[in-house]
Amino acid sequence: MNKSISKTTQKVAVEYLRYSKPRRYQLNCNDSNNCFVIQGQMNAQKAHDMEIEIDRSYFEAGISSYSNKRPALKGMLKYIKESKGRINFIIVYNLDRLTRDIGENEITKTLAETGVQIISSVEEFDKLPLDDFTYHVKGKAAICNYLYHSPEKKKKSQKSH
Fold first, then answer.
1. DSSP line for 5-22
2. How far apart are CA 141 and CA 152, in angstroms?
3. Rounded to 5 degrees, what angle do the CA atoms 102, 122, 129 make?
4. Residue 130: its pLDDT value, please?
5. Residues of the chain with pLDDT > 70: what percent?
6. Tell me, what's the pLDDT at 28?
7. Which pLDDT tens digit goes with each residue over 101-149?
8. pLDDT per residue over 53-71, tens digit each?
9. What residues form DSSP beta bridges with 18?
10. Which pLDDT tens digit goes with each residue over 20-66?
11. What span, in angstroms and rounded, lies between the C-alpha atoms of 95 and 32?
């Protein structure tokens, strides 16, 4: 049986991979959040399982998801808009590789305008409506923010100085 997808039902995605620690990729590939290889393998497996073609991959190294200076992200969003409906999905390893800040209106605006859905290789939120996606991002951002500013982390930081 031929599993190829016909032109009329073809599902096409772009893939976004990011890690925030400079030079971490060369030093430690055990941490999937900081390794393009692992992120890419998981994304490829998810695309294969869902019979989705990955059209392009966008890489961002050593840049925080809080930064608005992410040329690969901007290029990907521009490509999605210019694809005129050919792109159906953005595949990410997990959501925080794409964003931790719901204030990134460019992402939510592009999703709303184009109907593109986000798929995570490892998180189960794949086909949420935009309002649920927004809620998910806000929740994840709140957790990350709490952990970053937690009293335990501040105590450890103060002891190390």
1. PPTTT-EEEEEEEEE-ST
2. 18
3. 45
4. 54
5. 59
6. 55
7. 655 568 878 888 888 988 889 877 645 555 555 555 655 565 565 556 5
8. 999 999 988 888 777 788 9
9. 60
10. 776 554 445 665 556 788 889 999 999 999 999 999 999 988 888 77
11. 13
Query: Is 63 in contact with 69 (CB distance < 8 Å)?
Result: yes
Q: What is the CATH number of domain 11-160?
A: 3.40.50.1390
d(CA 99, CA 46): 20
Six-digit token string for 30: 């055990």
Q: What angle (nearest 5°) sits at the alpha carbon of residue 98, between those of residues 84 and 73?
A: 50
What distance in Å separates the CA atoms of residue 39 and residue 141, rounded to the nearest whole number? 20
* Helices first, then strands: H and E counts in the chain: 7, 4
At 59, list the tokens: 């890489």
| Structure confidence at residue 106 (pLDDT) | 80
CA separation for the pair 116, 82 (Å, rounded)? 13
20, amino acid identity: S
